[in-house]
Amino acid sequence: MCGAPFHSGAGMRTLRTFQDLFKRYRRPGDLVFAAGFFALSLLLAAAIPWQVTWVGGLGVIEQPAFWPVVAVAAMVTFSSLHLVGALVSERIPGRRKEVFHWLRSVEFALWFMAYVFLVPWIGYLLGSVLFVTALSFRQGYRSARWMGTAALFAATVVVLFKGLLQVRVPAGEIYQYLPPGDLRTFVMTWL
């Protein structure tokens, strides 16, 4: 039966054997990903003694640490199998290009971290408008129409979140320079 044809259904690709069903399709950066994920799982396993609590008098399954330990043990097990599979598989050219493609996404995490760092200083409204317009500019939307649309979108989000939904966002330090009174109170509360 192992060599018998296997048909996957109407409209889908037909598999010739059950081995085709379990064939592994690798990407060029598979070895880098497997090694990185295995290193992360080992780091989590090493941190287990400091991150979980074992309570005396409880059964193993009732322990607060039981499921985190199971999850990390599964990560170590499966990431090691993935790493072994990546090591014994044939090499596919293009690893560097694939890894650099992954690293490009880090830029947007840095954009977000800069936004989170700046909001307590320059305020939610100004920070959001600057962030959204700068990110729109970075993505290639550089005309005055797109910059205006981005600024309007950011201002709308601020009004919706802070004004209407009453999401608690700390007022920016820059608001301290506004003249005391109703305007300052309004801006610190609603914008």
How are the SSEs placed, and which strands pair?
Elements: H1 18-21, H2 30-51, H3 66-88, H4 95-103, H5 106-122, H6 124-138, H7 144-164, H8 182-190
What does this structure look like?
With about 190 residues, the protein is an all-alpha fold. It is built from eight helices and no strands. It has helices at about 20, 30-50, 65-90, 95-105, 105-120, 125-140, 145-165, 180-190.
Question: Summarize this, please?
Answer:
This protein is mostly helical and 191 residues long. The chain has helices at residues 18-21, 30-51, 66-88, 95-103, 106-122, 124-138, 144-164, 182-190. It contains eight helices and no strands.
Task: Output the keywords.
191 residues; 8 helices; flat; mainly alpha; disordered N terminus
Cα-to-Cα separation, first versus last residue: 68 Å
Question: How many runs of DSSP E, i.e. beta strands?
Answer: 0
Total helices: the number is 8
- Rounded to the nearest angstrom, the radius of gyration is 26 Å
Uncertain regions spanning at least 5 consecutive residues: 1-6
**What level of helicity do the residues show?**
55-70%
Order of helices and strands: HHHHHHHH
Mean pLDDT value: 85
